[in-house]
Write a sequence for this structure.
């Protein structure tokens, strides 16, 4: 997308989604317009707002002023005051879907107001059709920095954030446990996330029980549930299996399928990049935010201010995740340091990278056309995503790919029992196996087809390998900083297809 002129008047296209229906009036459409992540600097230049649903223009408004979202926790969102434009009726029904790039989740687009007026004139004379619209206007998505920066600034000025930052999972488990046990009836909307059929009443809560964040039981053995909380990280299947097996106050020796008459919940900020196995069920902080919004402050005794600050904190967390999600700007640079520059403190880069890489995983799923088994982590201060597939002929060996920082790696995992782990001899043996048996796996052609000169050339001598503890053997090529999320996800989806095909054949 070409950048719009820095000083020219702008129009903003807003996808209003479920806010539109065929019988909605102009006034109703205006009232349903909502709050948007529009940068304050850009907002001062916006003269028109165009409401879009299902790719079709539903209304056009002259913008008179912008004002921030009133609730705590919605920093960075603003709404406009305006009136229906006189030529709105001539625009309604226009297909502008081509302005929104395929797959992008961001509902906002900036275009030059002059382009919009010119296109209207051209369409009247039928010089520009729907298919030509994207090429006829200069379009810009909100940048990652302009979406993330206001939220980070709000966190930095919030005492609750500074209380939580040392141990975020424990902070949430302590506060959620306190609210549900101290105010069991008032916090019924929250409790029903974990026990939908709950009739309320007394709730006993254990926090940090056998490494489980929250364990709870209602009066008489009712409403038994377990919550494991993850904010910036995602647990692996082995960790969840071990937690499901852990003894509970009312059950011991129940195994990996969990205790009877007990529900197990994985509460995450980000959607896990794998399918949860029984007994675990997913619940997201989005759901917690909605439940907290349904709780009335005046029934919380002496704690309404604490509760309201926490509610804003959760809403802000969800907003940050959405803002940093690379699917919000598929055609912008993927790397956090490139996308954000120096707009956020360095202490934020680790958590933001973890969330960024999780979003990349879902973008890969979209490009691949199905779920891809990924492991996402943070190592040495940089994001890491891995896809491995066991070989058909030897389940102790796998091939796959990794992205760590700016490195794209093709990897082989050799876990034969005779030479596992550290040691020069073991390392040499693993390298020899890869050199002699799997050398043709280390071909970057599938990535090169998509990335082209964004993939920096590198030559490898015979017998030259990199190693990653405990049993990885790999070669890599670096990816240039300007690579977009769409380009990277497309390349990794192609390598995934090659991985799966190659592993089945070997």
């Amino acid at each position: 997308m070409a950048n719009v002129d820095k000083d020219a008047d702008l129009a903003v296209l807003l996808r209003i989604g479920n806010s539109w229906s065929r019988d909605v009036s102009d006034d109703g459409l205006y009232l349903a317009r909502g709050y948007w992540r529009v940068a304050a600097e850009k907002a001062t230049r916006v003269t028109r707002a165009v409401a879009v649903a299902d790719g079709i223009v539903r209304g056009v408004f002259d913008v008179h002023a912008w004002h921030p979202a009133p609730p705590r926790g919605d920093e960075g969102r603003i709404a406009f005051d305006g009136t229906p434009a006189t030529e709105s009726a001539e625009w309604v029904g226009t297909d502008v879907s081509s302005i929104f790039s395929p797959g992008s989740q961001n509902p906002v687009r900036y275009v030059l107001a002059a382009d919009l007026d010119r296109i209207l004139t051209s369409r009247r004379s039928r010089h520009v059709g729907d298919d030509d619209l994207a090429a006829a206007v200069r379009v810009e998505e909100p940048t990652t920095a302009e979406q993330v920066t206001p939220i980070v600034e709000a966190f930095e000025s919030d005492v609750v954030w500074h209380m939580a930052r040392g141990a975020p999972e424990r902070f949430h488990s302590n506060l959620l446990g306190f609210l549900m046990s101290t105010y069991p009836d008032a916090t019924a909307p929250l409790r029903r996330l974990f026990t939908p059929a709950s009739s309320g009443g007394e709730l006993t809560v254990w926090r940090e029980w056998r490494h489980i964040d929250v364990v709870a039981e209602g009066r008489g053995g009712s409403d038994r549930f377990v919550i494991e909380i993850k904010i910036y990280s995602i647990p692996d299947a082995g960790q969840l299996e071990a937690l499901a097996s852990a003894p509970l106050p009312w059950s011991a020796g129940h195994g990996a399928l969990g205790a009877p008459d007990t529900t197990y919940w994985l509460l995450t900020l980000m959607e896990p990049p794998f399918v949860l196995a029984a007994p675990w069920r997913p619940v997201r902080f989005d759901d917690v935010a909605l439940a907290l919004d349904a709780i009335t402050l005046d029934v919380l005794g002496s704690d309404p201010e604490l509760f309201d600050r926490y509610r804003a904190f959760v809403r802000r967390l969800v907003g940050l995740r959405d803002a940093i999600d690379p699917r919000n700007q598929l055609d912008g640079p993927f790397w956090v340091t490139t996308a954000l520059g120096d707009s956020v403190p360095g202490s934020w880069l680790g958590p933001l990278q973890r969330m960024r890489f999780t979003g990349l995983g879902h973008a890969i799923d979209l490009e691949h056309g199905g779920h891809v088994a990924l492991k996402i982590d943070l190592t040495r201060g940089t994001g890491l995503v891995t896809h491995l597939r066991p070989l058909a002929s030897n389940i102790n060996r796998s091939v796959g790919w990794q992205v760590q920082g700016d490195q794209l790696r093709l990897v082989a995992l050799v876990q034969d029992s005779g030479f596992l782990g550290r040691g020069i001899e073991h390392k040499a043996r693993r390298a020899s196996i890869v050199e002699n048996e799997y050398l043709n796996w280390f071909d970057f052609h599938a990535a090169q087809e998509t990335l082209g000169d964004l993939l920096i050339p590198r030559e490898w001598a015979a017998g030259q390998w990199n190693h990653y503890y405990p049993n990885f053997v790999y070669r890599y090529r670096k990816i240039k900083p300007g690579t977009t999320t769409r380009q990277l996800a497309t390349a990794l989806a192609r390598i995934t297809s090659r991985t799966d095909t190659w592993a089945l054949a070997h």
Q: What stands out?
A: The longest helix spans residues 304-324. The chain is about 35% helix and 25% strand. The chain has three domains: 10-142, 162-318, 337-504. The mean pLDDT is 89.
